């Protein structure tokens, strides 16, 4: 099996790279996977009409930089991670951009919101319960005396 970097060097806009990208999208791991070669030309894209065209967002990974950003591209508003693809010699030969829509992130957050509120409420209830137990225990140990009464006993001279 040839290495992924050799596929990129061939600059073929179809084939195995597109199948790999589609497999990730098919597993609902991401909304899109775009693979480019070292000039920023798309070798994979969910929209076949975009194959072979220059990417619409800044190809920062071609400079060897890994980046996560919120951008508006050909597929709309998304949060995406861009990472460089290196050859065996260490040269950048392309980039992979994987993204999810901002709408799907908002939906996931709203879906988790009920759990977050429930966890916060349970935590607060546990804290109140622990506080009451601690106060009762201290009251028993001090025979029900308040702090100022204990202070008076300590400062009272013995006769």
UniProtKB/TrEMBL annotation:
<feature type="transmembrane region" description="Helical">
    <location>
        <begin position="113"/>
        <end position="135"/>
    </location>
</feature>
<keyword id="KW-0812">Transmembrane</keyword>
<keyword id="KW-1133">Transmembrane helix</keyword>
<dbReference type="GO" id="GO:0005886">
    <property type="term" value="C:plasma membrane"/>
</dbReference>
<feature type="domain" description="Single cache">
    <location>
        <begin position="9"/>
        <end position="109"/>
    </location>
</feature>
<dbReference type="InterPro" id="IPR033463">
    <property type="entry name" value="sCache_3"/>
</dbReference>
<keyword id="KW-1003">Cell membrane</keyword>
<keyword id="KW-0472">Membrane</keyword>
<dbReference type="InterPro" id="IPR029151">
    <property type="entry name" value="Sensor-like_sf"/>
</dbReference>
<dbReference type="Pfam" id="PF17203">
    <property type="entry name" value="sCache_3_2"/>
</dbReference>
<protein>
    <recommendedName>
        <fullName>Single cache domain-containing protein</fullName>
    </recommendedName>
</protein>
């Amino acid at each position: 099996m040839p290495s992924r970097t050799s596929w990129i060097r061939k600059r073929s806009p179809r084939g195995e790279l597109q199948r790999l990208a589609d497999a990730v999208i098919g597993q609902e791991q991401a909304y899109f996977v775009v693979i480019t070669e070292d000039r920023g030309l798309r070798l994979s894209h969910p929209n076949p009409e975009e194959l072979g065209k220059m990417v619409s967002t800044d190809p920062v990974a071609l400079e060897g930089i890994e980046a996560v950003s919120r951008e508006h591209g050909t597929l709309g508003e998304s949060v995406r991670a861009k990472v460089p693809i290196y050859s065996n010699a260490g040269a950048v030969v392309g980039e992979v951009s994987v993204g999810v829509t901002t709408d799907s992130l908002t939906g996931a957050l709203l879906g988790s919101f009920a759990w977050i509120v429930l966890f916060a409420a349970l935590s607060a209830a546990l804290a109140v319960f622990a506080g009451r137990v601690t106060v009762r225990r201290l009251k028993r140990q001090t025979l029900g005396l308040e702090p100022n009464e204990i202070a008076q006993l300590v400062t009272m001279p013995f006769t």
